[in-house]
Write a structure and sequence with these properties.
- Strand 8, helix 9 and strand 9 form a beta-alpha-beta unit.
- Helix 1 crosses helix 3, helix 4 packs across helix 12 and helix 10 runs antiparallel to helix 12.
- It is built from 13 helices and ten strands.
- Helices cover about 45% and strands about 15% of the residues.
- Belongs to the tubulin family.
Length: about 375
Amino acid sequence: MAKTDTEINAKIPHVVPHGSCRQVGHPMLTYAPTFPPEGQSVGRGLRNLKLTVEDWSYIDDEFFCCSVCVPGFQVCHSLGGGTGSGMGTLLISKIREEYPDRMMMTFSVFPSPKVSDTVVEPYNATLSVHQLVENADECMVLDNEALYDICFRTLKLSNPSFGDLNHLISETMSGVTCCLRFPGQLNSDLRKLAVNLIPFPRLHFFMVGFAPLTARGSQQYISLTVPELTQQMWDAKNMMCAADPRHGRYLTASAMFRGKMSTKEVDEQMINVQNKNSSYFVEWIPNNVKSSVCDIPPRGLKMASTFVGNSTSIQEMFRRVSEQFTAMFRRKAFLHWYTGEGMDEMEFTEAESNMNDLVAEYQQYQDATADDEGEYEEGIEENYEA
């Protein structure tokens, strides 16, 4: 698996060759510029990538070394700062342009509802979502506050580090791609996942979860079963983003199990979940929960499961960011930092409109019923025309 690290702040990548991850990836695929850091601005991040065209050859070389079996790309980035939002989304756009037939999956860390370290996070996130709607196929939505809550409440960690948060994300990433790397009874891949999870092109933002989540030292006392994994992976408190699935309805969902287990038992558990919680699933998409089983469990576990859900409740996160964006943009606060980097005010207006349209679409399909066929088809036509 190829890996490329990019960071606009030149100090950070210089630490990697001397850290614990120094053997992961080739040093030529860690890029650091010689100009000043991004200053938390999307505009600076966008400008900087235009200065790194020659470095694109590194990604090309890695791609062609394994082009026969590359199903797609995974991009991990944060939407609050300048690097992940500006440079990250433009890199995604560039990859989409060069390799339009490959799947683009992102693991995107959205601004947290309460904890913020950058005042312009709403600007950066809204401008980023504007790009992700168009250029990403599958976007796994994460936020640090939800990850911290899992560490405190479920894992019983008194002082979780970013390493603990990253471990949760890495377990989810590993679960999503396990069927690409290991044999299984019911296989899945990035494209099959997208086909089953995305009923409408723009609605490709997913909630994710992982099971088992247990306090350190207690794993040996817990007997893992398929029902236990199922209960935990569907638990609203274990979702890795600050949106409650109980406030919306699932359009689709996917459950990826790992370990020695019966596919019959997995199917029965998925049916039970849908029957007991039918009000949380739209009735106009039948059989909307996909399952897969990989024979090889994660290291240190006998079995595990990864959850990916396309829920209309994800609009809570978009609505919150949009309200924060509007409050600042109405007063043109901090706008000069972006226009000074060559951005236009119209880009902000378009991004705000796109975000509001996305929220409206999720709400439309949350309220839709099987009897709304005429209005439903009309809405689909409008989406495709747009």
